[in-house]
Amino acid sequence: MGFGFRKSFKIAPGIRLNVGSKSIGVSAGVKGLRYSVNSRGGSRMTASIPNTGIYYTSTGGKRSRTTAYSRQREIQARQKEAARLNELEQAALAVDAYQNTLDRIHSIHKEADDPINWIKVRSTNPPFRKNEGQIGLHENAAIEKLHNYKPNLVTKLFGHQEKELEKLQKEVMEARKKDDEEYRSWERDVRIATKVIEGDIDTYFEVIQEFEPFDDLTEFGSGFEFFAENPKVMEIEFDVHSDTVVPKEQLSLTKTGKLSVKPMPKSKYFDIQQDYVCSCVLRIARDMFALLPLDTVYIHATETILDSITGYQRQLTILSVKIDKRTLNKLNFEHIDCSDSMQNFKHNMKFKKTAGFSEVEKLTVE
Fold first, then answer.
1. Which residues form a coiled coil (predicted)?
2. pLDDT the model gives residue 54
């Protein structure tokens, strides 16, 4: 069940770690776990290339839920063409990008994953009865095509019949290989689903690694560390890095369309910072409950500051919260105030509008 001692693994910004000696999706030719599991027991259709970190989202994919995230890609495309824009167009683009950053900060908690039904994944039927000698659909179709082959007059005239038969036979071999890949993918998914249901913590970490639920948060510069010894409880440390996320300047357009840049008022900066931290906390909890059979998550948001006494960087805990799945699922995430929502849970947070966060003690896992 995963009991005995505390286990952990870490995701740093821009780095994807291998949790064990064997990744759960490394078999050659087998679709990434993220794609195959969701096609069996979920609703997202995100294809990944195993062990590469590369993936793409199809039209049936879950990202993005909010216009802020979908507009980000549009803005990024426009920014690549910025050199070709005139001064007023560049100013408008800068303001648009600034506003989109704020919108995304306030929308992080809405970008959560859909739940994975691991029981459904475990109970899915194999693509074909391999152990009973049955062949797969792809090979069956290729064999039928081979058997039905009839050379036309031109083929007979130029003596291409043997070449076309070789091509069809090659297609049979390729189809057999494709069926074998799909079967191995099914075997892996059932094996992983079984381990997740049984509460194997090492498998939990591998699933997190493969699904990359916080990929967009690591783009902000955030890092994560996961701890667990009880399969129903997980502890997550989240590096905030708000100094690189929250804008320090306000951008707007003048009446003539020119760019206006002003320092961000401290009170507004801290207000955005608090919303960012709390939105991330909710998002982390939602994704963990969607991905794994957990009942409770402890999330500790940390910030690194320069200690003027020692002259060294020091990491502070600025928010520590215990979130239970039942309470979280009752919240209306479309209209919630993320900072206020912490009142629903046991938490430690000291925040002043004029000074921002202060250091707090981490909650102890019960």
1. 158-185
2. 27
